[in-house]
Design goal:
Elements lengths: L1 H29 L5 H17 L4 H21 L15 E9 L4 E3 L2 E11 L9 E6 L10 E9 L9 H6 L3 E14 L5 H20 L4 H10 L7 H9 L9 H17 L4 H18 L4 H19 L2 H18 L3 H4 L1 H20 L12 H22 L2 E3 L2 H9 L2 H17 L1 H26 L5 E3 L4 H28 L1
Parallel strand pairs: 4-6
Antiparallel strand pairs: 1-3, 1-5, 2-3, 3-4, 5-6, 7-8
Helix pairs in contact: 1-3, 1-11, 2-3, 5-6, 5-16, 7-17, 8-9, 8-10, 8-13, 8-14, 9-10, 10-11, 10-13, 11-13, 13-14, 14-15, 14-18, 16-17
């Protein structure tokens, strides 16, 4: 009886969460824009009927669902600027303003991308709100917290072919691009003091990495340690062809697989599961902080912890509720990620695959050795690849034929290389030759990955262009969900009989 009541409450909770998400999703897909007066009216009507029919369980349930959907619509609308002083209202004009670098600069081979939080106009000192995006040469370089005087022409981001560049920037609350900017640094020390310290530490670490390894291995190691992808060059394309881009991107896919392998290693080293869980969770939190705690990195850390939680609890139903609640909280914080952020979608679905698919395919690999967590790495890799494949084909239109085998060949060594890279950097501050020695061992691992990736990427059939539509993607996921549902019922029935 208690179990049935718990299941009923769980279904009600999930339904309410989905209603809010549905409101955000529909508004995003249709890009609805209307006056807030209609939203207030809908909320007032819903609240009135909720009071009137509160004693009727069924009507109360339907009204709450409607109310949550309306709140989802409202949250999406609030993601766009409404202030008259917002920088979005000054596009198509040449202006001179003052602001500070409010995010970690995105350093690439062709230049640096900055996001600047505007503060006021340079001449009138009138307050101005909002963020602008600008691309500059590699030098001179500006850092997080630097106060800048900008003179440029503001433009609205627009769609580039099929790419919604405007929505891509909107995820970061950027609604204006600063073209042809003339920049003068007039101060520093703006922004969050914690992030200033973290980014300064990262610059020190990056400098040390460049001394320990030559390019592109230096950028490769930086990518593994904190997600840097600026100096990889042609390796980026090779990683894409072989389906292993995630190893140099801080994503839930990446952190979840590494965390899974690490907790397996902890178990084999006889570290109690509970202690291993907390040890790796703390490690993920520290890693998220060091990587800059951007929205994508925080999301990746949360997804990684959820996978660990699934293994700790051993009850996927409870973890499913946690994941849905996590999606709601993330959507409340930034509703634009739901439809316009492929990284969020990949992280969420990959985590679902790791939680729900992994137990169902584990029996396929009973003969694979468990040394260094190889078996768990293979299972996790396959689960993540299967779960994200329809979305990848829809979003990017590329199918990597060799991805499963390449992932299996290289993922087992990633935690070891990361450990060696971390140790070599630490040792280099104490005794540089000792750091160089450890770095050389790590270099062997980097070369192994590079050789494997290059060889498979060179195959003519390594990757094929295959774009699918949204209908096909939905059908594939419905088929997958049905298979998981049937498989789980079979497993439950088998356990009850035994």
């Amino acid at each position: 009886m208690i179990k049935k009541i718990t299941q009923s409450k769980s279904k009600t909770f999930l339904t309410f969460c989905f209603c809010f998400i549905l409101g955000v999703a529909i508004t995003s897909l249709l890009e609805l824009k209307f006056d807030f007066i209609y939203l207030y009216l809908a909320l007032f009507i819903a609240a009135t009927f909720l009071i009137i029919y509160w004693s009727d369980k069924n009507k109360r349930f339907i009204i709450i669902c409607f109310l949550l959907a309306v709140l989802g619509v409202g949250r999406y609308l609030l993601a766009f600027p409404i202030s008259q002083n917002h920088v979005n209202n000054y596009t198509e004009q040449k202006i001179e303003l003052i602001g500070y670098v409010s995010a970690e600069p995105d350093v690439r081979m062709d230049g640096v991308r900055y996001i600047v939080e505007t503060q006021n106009f340079a001449s009138t000192k009138q307050n101005i709100q909002g963020k602008i995006y600008l691309k500059q040469n590699l030098y001179p370089r500006y850092n997080y917290g630097d106060k800048l005087k900008l003179k440029c022409e503001l433009e609205k981001p627009e769609t580039i072919e099929d790419f919604r560049y405007d929505m891509y920037l909107a995820r970061y609350k950027v609604f204006a691009i600063c073209q042809g900017a003339k920049i003068e640094k007039i101060g520093d020390g703006e922004g969050n003091f914690l992030f200033r310290g973290i980014f300064s530490l990262k610059q020190v670490v990056a400098s040390r990495i460049n001394k320990l390894w030559h390019e592109p291995n230096a950028s490769f190691m930086a990518g593994l340690l904190y997600g840097y992808r600026g100096g990889l060059g042609e390796l980026n394309e090779l990683f894409s062809r072989t389906g292993v881009t995630h190893i140099v991107a801080i994503s839930g896919y990446n952190i979840s697989i590494i965390a899974t392998v690490l907790i397996t290693i902890c178990v084999h080293l006889l570290i109690p599961r509970k202690k291993a869980f907390w040890f790796i969770t703390v490690g993920i939190i520290l890693f998220v902080l060091f990587a800059g705690a951007s929205a994508s990195v925080v999301r990746a850390g949360i997804m990684g912890v959820i996978v660990l939680l699934a293994k700790q609890m051993g009850r996927t139903s409870n973890v499913g509720n946690v994941m849905v609640l996590t999606a709601v909280v993330m959507t409340i914080h930034n509703p634009l990620i739901l439809i316009w952020d492929a990284g969020f979608q990949l992280s969420f679905i990959a985590t679902l695959g790791l939680v729900y698919l992994t137990p169902l395919i584990r029996d396929w690999f009973v003969h694979v050795p468990e040394v260094l967590g190889i078996r768990e790495s293979i299972i996790s890799t396959l689960a993540a690849i299967i779960s994200t494949l329809p979305l990848i084909l829809f979003q990017f239109g590329r199918l990597s034929i060799v991805a499963p085998i390449v992932n299996v060949l290289i993922l087992w060594i990633i935690p070891l290389i990361m450990l060696l890279g971390f140790v070599s950097v630490i040792f280099s501050f104490i005794l540089f030759p000792l750091g160089e020695l450890v770095a050389w061992i790590a270099w062997v691992g980097l070369q192994y990955i590079t050789v494997v990736v290059k060889w498979f990427a060179g195959l003519k059939f390594a990757a094929v262009d295959l774009q699918i539509g949204v209908v096909v993607m939905v059908l594939l996921y419905l088929t997958m969900f049905y298979w998981i549902y049937k498989k789980n019922n079979t497993v439950i029935a088998r356990n009850e009989n035994t």
